[in-house]
Amino acid sequence: MTEQNDTQQSKAGAIIVPVTLFEQNCTIIWDEPGKKAVVIDPGGDVPKILEAIKQIGVTVEKIWLTHGHIDHVGGAAELRDALRVPIEGPHAADKFLLDNVVESGARFGMTGVRNFEPDRWLDEGDNVSIGGLTFDILHCPGHSPGSVVFFNGNLRFAHVGDVLFAGSVGRTDLPGGSHATLINSIMTKLLPLGDDVGFICGHGAGSSIGQERMTNPFITGEM
Fold this sequence. Notes:
InterPro entries: MBL_Glyoxalase_II (IPR051453), Metallo-B-lactamas (IPR001279), RibonucZ/Hydroxyglut_hydro (IPR036866). The protein is an alpha+beta fold.
């Protein structure tokens, strides 16, 4: 479990819990001092996620999903049942992925996963909240048709899922993927957020919009 620095004078905290063979960044974010929390992208290893929740002493009230790929949603139905909380996201364009979680899991030897539907689909311009924290929703297709990004302007922080990585971008060779669409999402939705915005992504280390604007070859090649 990799701990992230608290953001903006401890008004929010976050930890990353790497899960499954994909080392996917399941993320727990909470507000301070209320300790109300959300789990973003519980891809699997639900007992590990539950243990992390217990260790940090937060009360999880929601599950948010950035998109519908198996490594991000494999544990969502199980965690919803365990915590009795709603699932919000992704965009409805990823419904075909959530309808086929079992089939996708079988290809990677993941058992115990279930097809499901979220309690709320998210779209551009929506917002979601946990405790005193509110995040704007950006619909950023390309990696998957229904990928969304969670952005908090006060904290200057985003969770971008697999849209953007440190030094790279999300793969686009999966069903519904489009490299041109992904780059457009990054250029028109993420870069305008501002160079000072830090982000957590779906795999690997996080970064900032400014760092990626300057050094990410997928972005610099388009500018």
